[in-house]
Design brief:
CATH class of the largest domain: Alpha Beta
CATH superfamily of the largest domain: Alanine racemase
Helix content: 25-40%
Number of domains: 2
CATH topology of the largest domain: TIM Barrel
Structural class: alpha/beta
Distance between the termini: 57 Å
Bound molecules: ligand LLP
Number of helices: 12
Length: 417
């Protein structure tokens, strides 16, 4: 449930009409509903209320400070994948004890910075990384708390680019090699193996893959404990999907939690969860203005001022974001159309081959479900300044990131010679 809805045929974010924000801020802009963010976080947290757990929101989904701050105030911890994300969560005052560090390629300086912040857990993805963390922690005279990220080889049945838990993916330590690496970790002086981690993919719309993965890691956890490795944390990653269009209905967080907790019954462990999309995806939309409308031979092209540099998901994953008019009118015919951006690539579309109401130049379009991996994946391709971001709370809004200026685009550049 989110707080984007029509009031008198005018699309609102909470109580603020989106056309009013567009007039003041210009287009394109991302708009987040703070009430929705909080609601999604609360629903997720409440689903796990009966289990000892820590929610570590996955910063990569949307790393804007106002989003992180909203969730931190709710008690969220954070899952980070870079030194930049570490610095973001530090900026909003989150203590290291609520931070886990994931990712296959942690650099030496990132590891050192995370140790300086006393983070809760490094999710280690290779033998090389384990040895590197041990060396750096030794040099700093400290011990690093670690989990090994296991690749359980289960099929998450999602887009290949966002599947991570298959044998052929680069992520994690192959399940058959995990025990050996834990045994090695236990002998190292400057790492302390206290956790077990897995994340199998993103935008999962069924529970079975999660359950299969939990079964596998649970068996491993019990085996490790029997061998004297004191695993206290079980990190199950993120990945729960959201509805992008109406015929794709992923399980409610309540059912997701029930399924996981049922598998883990009797296991004395602190659960860590790393949800990203399910918290922020439907708490945000992208608002763009129609520049031109032109008829191709087969269909109409609605050309907007937002392009693939603003929202790359349709181009990259063939994602189906719902397209809505900001002003709903009932006198419009439905037509077959592509919503495309101004970028010089045929892959630059926000929606393809959709039946949509006719749009006219100057009108506003809302692209739904754009809160996760929207702004966070945006770029300056075609030397386009990145969009503004706005957050709404009830009847108030604020620009949480002004639109980039042309000047900012080349501020760090120098001529050669
Ligand atoms: N934990 C780890 C270790 C991850 O790699 C990810 C996402 C998450 C948690 C959060 O997953 P979520 O709950 O958001 O599914 N750009 C793609 C999604 C990439 C996901 C990468 N990892 C997209 O736009 O669909």
């Amino acid at each position: 449930m989110d707080y984007f809805r029509y009031i008198d045929n005018r699309l609102h974010c909470e109580q603020v009409p989106l056309d009013q924000i567009a007039e003041a801020v210009g287009t394109p802009f991302y708009c987040y509903s703070q009430g929705t963010l909080e609601r999604h976080y609360d629903v997720f947290r409440n689903a796990f209320a009966n289990a000892r757990h820590l929610i570590c929101y996955s910063v990569k989904a949307n790393s804007s400070l106002a989003v992180l701050d909203t969730l931190a105030r709710r008690g969220s911890g954070f899952d980070i994948v870079s030194g930049g994300e570490l610095e973001r969560v530090r900026r909003i005052g989150c203590p290291g004890s609520r931070v886990v560090f994931s990712g296959v390629g942690k650099s030496a300086s990132e590891i050192q910075a995370a140790l300086e912040q006393d983070i809760l857990l490094f999710n280690v993805e290779s033998h090389g990384e384990l040895m590197r963390i041990n060396t750096i922690a030794g040099r700093m005279g400290t011990t690093a708390p670690i989990a090994l990220r296991i690749n359980p080889d289960v099929d998450p049945v999602t887009h290949p680019y966002i599947s991570t838990g298959l044998r052929r993916n680069k992520f994690g330590i192959p399940h058959p090699k995990a025990e050996e690496l834990y045994r090695l970790a236990a002998t190292l002086e400057h790492v302390q193996p206290i956790g077990l981690d897995c994340h199998i993919g993103s935008q999962l719309t069924t529970l079975e893959p999660f359950v299969d993965a939990v079964k596998r890691v649970k068996q491993l956890l019990i085996k490790l404990r029997n061998q004297g490795v004191a695993i206290r944390y079980l990190d199950l990653g993120g990945g729960l999907g959201i509805p992008y269009d109406t015929h794709e209905i992923p399980p409610h967080p309540e059912r997701y939690a029930q399924a996981l907790l049922q598998e883990l019954e009797g296991l004395d462990v602190t659960l860590i969860l790393e949800p990203g999309r399910v918290i922020v995806g439907n708490a945000g939309i992208l608002v763009t203005r129609v520049e031109y409308v032109k008829d191709g031979e087969e269909k109409r092209f609605i050309i907007t001022d937002a392009g693939m540099n603003d929202l790359i998901r349709p181009a990259l994953y063939d994602a189906q974001h719902t397209i809505l008019p900001v002003m709903r009118r009932f006198d419009r015919e439905e037509i077959l159309a592509d919503v495309v951006g101004p970028i010089c690539e045929s892959g630059d579309f926000l929606a393809r081959d959709r039946i949509l109401p006719e749009f006219h130049p100057g009108e506003l379009i809302a692209v739904r479900s754009a809160g996760a991996y929207g702004f966070a994946m945006s770029s300056n391709y075609n030397s386009r300044p990145r969009a503004a971001e706005v957050m709404v709370r009830q009847d108030r809004y604020a620009v949480i990131r002004p639109r980039e200026t042309i000047q900012q685009l080349f501020e760090n550049e120098v001529l050669f010679g």
